[in-house]
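Box 4.2: Ligand-aware structure prediction
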Amino acid sequence: MPALRRGRALGDVLVLEDAYVLCDGERIEAVGRMRDLGPLGGDIEEVDGRGLCAVPGLVDCHTHPAWGGDRVEEFTLRAEGASYEELHARGGGIARTVEATRALDEAALRARVDRHARWMLRHGTTTWEGKSGYGLDRDTEIASLRAIRDAGGSPTWLGAHAVPPEFADADAYLEFALSGVLPEAAKVADAADVFLERGAFDATQARRYLRACADAGLALRLHGDQFTESGAIPLAVELRARSVDHLEATSDTGIRALAASDVVGVLLPASALFLDRPMPPARALVDAGAAIALATDFNPGSAFTTSLPLVASLACTQLKLSPAEALTAMTVNAAHVLGRNAVGTLAPGAPADVVLFDAPDWRYLAYHLGGDIVRTVVAGGRLVRLG
Ligand code: NIG
Ligand code: FE
């Protein structure tokens, strides 16, 4: 099974020319050169890949797909100069989406999540994580987690995303969330996440929330160092979190601490681009030996995109990663963040998740900026019609 890749190993990609991928049911049976493929018996469905490139199904390990409404008004205000943090402080931002999400009935919320999952698939994403966090009441949070699970995602309870308006402060809200929502959320979710940031939750509150979630059996994730370095990396290391995500504001000290740990730094350059914020120090993290992954951060406010190929382009042009490093960060390493260690590789025994690019070289993944390169997707051994 592929292990987490760091340092130079992040850029190790084995390229086979003129190759085949043989799948049996939900698994890959063999991979090799066409000239070495013996005769095949039985009922075989062939996908002609001549002139195309096959890569492992992409893995988006950080998305927020369960929400109502949109934030196109705020997007327009930001284009006129308003900042994301200002809009948030004025009661817009996450709070606006919480209001719109609570207004959906369960069928409408599920329809939204299903639609977002279809968008991901069209961009070549066959494994994804989805966070709740736009309900922040019991019923909407649980409905979000179930919708994500039923749409094929790995659900993460982002119960500590923001303090909803009916609570006086973060501590009062956490009291409710941990006693009233966690017991049910832990039955559906794989992981828990917290927004550790000025104006959201501080390190003491994040520790309390995450410890309770770990006790309930959930893996731990953190949104940290997005705008300010507020202790997310030390807390992630202390609690053995799977990942700490964003890192646009991470200093050299933070880079060293992350590199010395097994916590994965999940970088979200589409969010930095969408908010016109500094990019995370990706090159320094990789060169220091930290394990990184790449994800979209798909959400209505700070990253309205489901395209990992776009993220790969940003990784190469803005983060100065190579195409090979970008591919590994959105396959093997992203799968590791989700605890899905068999996913993200084209190897015998791995799930039959394959993407065919309409490109003469697999590096078009990053090179073809905004390109419509995903021709065919095989997910769990099933050939998907891209509608
Ligand atoms: O990862 N930073 C916190 N949460 C999301 C954005 C949420 C929103 O703006 O609706 C993020 O960027
Ligand atoms: Fe996020």
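In the box above, the bound molecule is N-(iminomethyl)-L-glutamic acid. DSSP finds 15 helices and 14 strands in the chain.
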